[in-house]
Amino acid sequence: MRTARDWGLIAPGRLEPGPHNAITDVPGVAVGHRSLRGEGIFTGVTAILPHEDDPFRLKPRAAVEVINGFGKSAGLMQVAELGTIETPILLTNTFGVAACTQALIARAIAANPQIGRKTSTVNALVCECNDGAINDIQAMAVTPEDAEAALDAASFGPVEQGAVGAGSGMTAFGFKAGIGTASRVIRIARHDFMLGALVLANFGAAGDLVLPDGRRPDPRAPSSPERGSIIVVIATDLPLGDRQLQRVARRGAAGIARLGAFWGHGSGDVVLCFTTAGAVEHEPAKPISTQERLSDTHIDLAFRAATEATQEAVLNALCLAPATPARNGRLYPALADWLKENS
């Protein structure tokens, strides 16, 4: 299937993408999927590893922006308070959060047996969307072993997109959707930095989608309230302070809004932003540390990159997902088929 860029939906004159146009263009970031298929089961887990070291021992700086808080994610409160993450990030369906949390805690303890005994507990970070329109969510099919499989499958380079991993049963704007990703190169002082976004797209009322060229694709479905969700994970190697990470995370909302979403009452919309620069040691050698940070005179480039990458990532999630029947017999069409008919 063709990406949004292949369909000509990404206008020229924007920031350039990285070599894979994926969150994995940020050095050290890896992504893995575990897709579950069976009788009524169409779900899975997607794992994002923030760097190649143990994130509990070397914690990436991070911030979270809750655009609309109709969600059941785990671990976001501590990220908001302390400004760091200390496990990989797992994405799954709403009723898979507990299993994924268990897997992350077990993995952290295996690497750090002192957790919860001689040192602090660990903040497992799991985000979710409700895939119950397609997947039998009451079956609670996701297990800790599935989460482990997604973590073990994490790799660098190209990222599989569409109806895969956590995105298996997700929909957006009345179309089939799922996992999407994109990246942007940020050139500052003759040095190239990278920013990438990965989305779990499960939001937007049918008929509200607006393409970058102004067209409004028709999923041929009755309009419905905005009750879905979207998780946006933004990664960068820019040296950003806590306040700056929060501000960049907020710009993920601009990328979502460009597509026609308005974050309805029942929508859970969360942006998590982390940097691989200046990670925080679990046991710092010195009581006072210094940190490099981007000058605010250049931060507009990061804002633009976050907005563009988020928008393109959602479009990729839509373009790369095939038509899929819902549990009630309804068909969630593929945006690619609409684009073929209207090209």
Structure description:
With 343 residues, the protein is of the alpha+beta class. The protein has helices at residues 76-82, 97-111, 144-152, 242-257, 299-319, 335-341; strands at residues 30-38, 41-49, 58-69, 89-93, 125-129, 171-172, 175-176, 179-188, 191-202, 229-236, 268-281, 324-325, 331-332. The strands form 4 sheets. Strands 3-11-10-9-8 form a 5-stranded mixed beta sheet. Strands 1-2-4-5 form a 4-stranded mixed beta sheet. Strands 6-7 form a two-stranded antiparallel ribbon. β6 and β7 form a beta hairpin. The chain is globular and about 60 Å long.
Task: Chart the SSEs and their pairings.
Elements: E1 30-38, E2 41-49, E3 58-69, H1 76-82, E4 89-93, H2 97-111, E5 125-129, H3 144-152, E6 171-172, E7 175-176, E8 179-188, E9 191-202, E10 229-236, H4 242-257, E11 268-281, H5 299-319, E12 324-325, E13 331-332, H6 335-341
Parallel strand pairs: 4-5, 10-11
Antiparallel strand pairs: 1-2, 2-4, 3-11, 6-7, 8-9, 9-10, 12-13
Helix pairs in contact: 2-3, 4-5
